[in-house]
């Protein structure tokens, strides 16, 4: 995607109804030794960094659960749209873990340090309405009978971006991202 000049916006959605991304398979992770876990987490972190570094806008369409690494995936995107019924949370502390794919950096940048600490420390899950009220998602929409309301709203948002000058959008994203790191 990074090198395809025809790609102007990327929308991340799930093919599984009711789930955006449920995070890592903890049963699989439990079978890994420490070296394998370290390698797995490093690869996951690199993947999220690669998504965040895509030169075009990215939109997460959260039509269901976005837990742990699933929320970290959404946080790696530039924009997030959620169904009001979606459930989101960095729930790792409820499993004796720590968000390992950038969530501890991206969540505070998105919603502020105090709220991020509260959500991470408690492992609390929030719905789309709560996520919108704290600025975690750009838009929240009522879920439809097809279960893809967030995806439909994400497409509408993508269609608003498409007519804009591609170079200006790319440079705007780069300037914002680099500015946030200063």
Automatic annotation (TrEMBL):
Keywords: Lyase. The lineage of its organism: Eukaryota, Metazoa, Chordata, Craniata, Vertebrata. The gene is Echdc2. One of its GO terms (biological process) is fatty acid beta-oxidation. Belongs to the enoyl-CoA hydratase/isomerase family. GO terms for cellular component: mitochondrion. GO terms for molecular function: lyase activity. This is ECHD2 protein. It comes from Trogon melanurus. The keyword Transmembrane helix does not apply.
């Amino acid at each position: 995607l990074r090198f395809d000049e025809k790609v102007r916006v990327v929308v991340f959605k799930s093919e599984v109804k009711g789930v955006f991304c449920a995070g890592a398979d903890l049963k699989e992770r439990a079978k890994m030794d420490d070296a394998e876990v370290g390698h797995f987490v490093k690869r996951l972190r690199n993947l999220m960094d690669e998504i965040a570094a895509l030169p075009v806008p990215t939109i997460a369409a959260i039509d269901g659960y976005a837990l742990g690494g699933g929320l970290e995936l959404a946080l790696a995107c530039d924009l997030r749209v959620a169904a009001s019924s979606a459930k989101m949370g960095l729930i790792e502390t409820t499993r004796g873990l720590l968000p390992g794919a950038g969530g501890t950096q991206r969540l505070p940048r998105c919603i502020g340090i105090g709220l991020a600490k509260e959500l991470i420390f408690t492992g609390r899950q929030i719905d789309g309405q709560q996520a919108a009220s704290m600025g975690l998602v750009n838009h929240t929409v009522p879920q439809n009978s097809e279960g893809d309301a967030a995806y439909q709203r994400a497409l509408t948002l993508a269609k608003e971006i498409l007519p804009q000058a591609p170079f200006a959008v790319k440079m705007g994203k780069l300037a914002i991202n680099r500015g946030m790191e200063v």
